[in-house]
Each structure stands twice: as structure tokens, then as C-alpha cells.
Give the backbone structure.
Amino acid sequence: MGLLFFALAFSLKAAPPAPGINQSAGFWTQAVGEGNLSSLDESLSTVRLWIESQGRFNNANPMENMNFYQGMIRTALGYAVTDRLTLWAGYTYLPTENYGQGYVGEQDAWPGMRYIFPTRLGTITLREMVEMRFVRGDAPGIRPRTLIKLLHPFEFEPRMGLVVWDEFFFNLNNVTNFPSGGGLSGFNQNRAFAGISWVFNENTRLEFGYMNLMANRSRPELHYSSYNSMNTVSASVFMGW
Amino acid sequence: MITLMLTPPSILRIVLLACLPCFLSACAAVQHDATLDKRFLSHDLSAAESLAQKTGQNDLGCTNVKTEELSAKNVEGAPMGPVWANYMIRISGCGKEKTYKIQCQAEYACYLPK
């Protein structure tokens, strides 16, 4: 049985991704905390701290309903240039163990910016990050990612709102040593979310909904394109201080 | 565009892209002035007043009430979310008065925090 398992695991590792668009399912959880540092010193009111963690599950393991395959820890320091504009410098750690594949620890360093503006339709957030992704070796993959998000509160229940966002990832260079593929320059992935938010109080908000992750799994040695469309249920808690 | 996607990036392109956030923020900072950067859209009190009035009429048992704005300010809330406009509104009528904190986002969506 053990031999069979290892044979299966090895074959999965060795198998190239199938051509076309493959489907999978998942569940993502996220907790984000953010605020300024004025509690330490009043002069630090424009300095912001962002801390975040995520747990990601998929259905790749046939012996489990949901298989934990990736975690994420992100932290960043920000400077609030204005009320609406914040510049960030951050670090992300992504431990990953896809079913049947080895462990990979990705570390990213990134500059970023965020712009928030209220409109009569709701609050729009724009975020740009340029990740320098270190997976294996010294050559980083450089990947800008652009997010646009709308939170539209409902008139009948203002604590509840519609949330839609899209985040587009684009590889600037070819990185061939990403174990799960996705290192080709050009389109890397797109995340599209639609769901509901619930405001517990001004400092705590829950967002729950559906997210589609369309990822490019193509590899330079393959003569075809391969994509994975992951349909996920996503739950996020946002906390401010 | 196709060339951009398929060829390895030059150092210059990487540097330009890494500097994009700084460039954009510099542009925004140049444009920034006090009026532009107020989080209030237009300081439109109507939805907040209407909620305070309705609640006050109920609580005071009085239909003929006056509303008075005591304060208005923006409060940072949970990240990646709504911009809050918090109002303190006094309702008075029939010899009684009560003050309410009303929280609004997008002007029309107001509620009474518990």
C-alpha cells in the first residue's frame, strides 16, 4: 500500500499538466489586520502595519475532502502619503505542498501601493504590488499584480454589502524553476471574486463568497498551453485598529 | 506587446516597473490638496439625519423633532473596506433630547452602531 502510494505520488510529480483548462475546487481562508502605529507614538500616525495570514485547501488529494496545500504569511510597513494613498514595502512567505509533490517555500519581497476612494456607489480600492518571488535559486520571478475592488453597501441593510474584485497577475520574466509551473512570462493568473460582506463594527468585517482562480500552468518544455481553473469558496476577516 | 511578453525583461524594464508605485504616488501627491483628499464625498447628512430623526421620534415618542449635527469625522475602519463617515446628531422635541452616533458609508448607507 505504501509502495503504491509512493508510486502514485511519484507519477503525479512527474506528470506534466494536461493541456487545455483543468478544473479543481478549493477553500481559502484569510485574516488581515491593519492599522497605524500612533498607539506607540503620535508621530507614527502615518506609518501603517499590515499583517495577514491565509490557509488554502484544494481537492487534489482523493483521500481527503479538502487538502491543505498552501499557507501564507504577509507583513508590510506602509506610509500613508495621503488619506487615501498608502505606499507599502512588504514580505510574503508561502509554504506550499501540492498533493503528490514536494515542499516548496516561496519568499516574496515587494513594493506596493493602495489607493482608496469613496464613491456614491461604494468604496473602490486599487492595489498594485510588484512581487519579487524567490522560489529556487537566486533569480527571482518578477510579477506585478493589480487589484480593483468595489464594496457596495445595501440600502436595506447597510452592514451588508456586495463585494466584487478582480486581481490580475502578470509575469515579467521566465522563471523555469517553479515546481508547479506558472513561471512563463506573460499571463500568470487571474482571481475574480463575488460575494457578500458583513460589517460587525467599523473595525471588523467578514467577506464570504466565490472566487475563481484561473492560473497558467504552461511550461516552456511543453508544446501546448495548460491552465487550471480553481473554483473556491473564500472567507476573509478584516480587522483594523 | 507580444514582444514584451515573450522576451526576457531588461534591467531597465524591471526598474521602471518596480518604480511604478512610487511614480504614481508622486503624481497623486502633486495633485493632492486638502479638498481633494477629504474622505467625505460631499458631507451629505441627509441619510444620517433621516435615520437619527426616525430613531429619535421613536425613542422620544415625539413626531415634531429638531435635528442638530454635533460633529462629523472620518474614522479608519477595517482594511480594504468602506470609508466611514461618523456623525453625532442630537434629536430634540417635546422637552426631551437624545444624541445618536450614526455611521455612514457611500452617503446613503447609514446605521446605528450597537
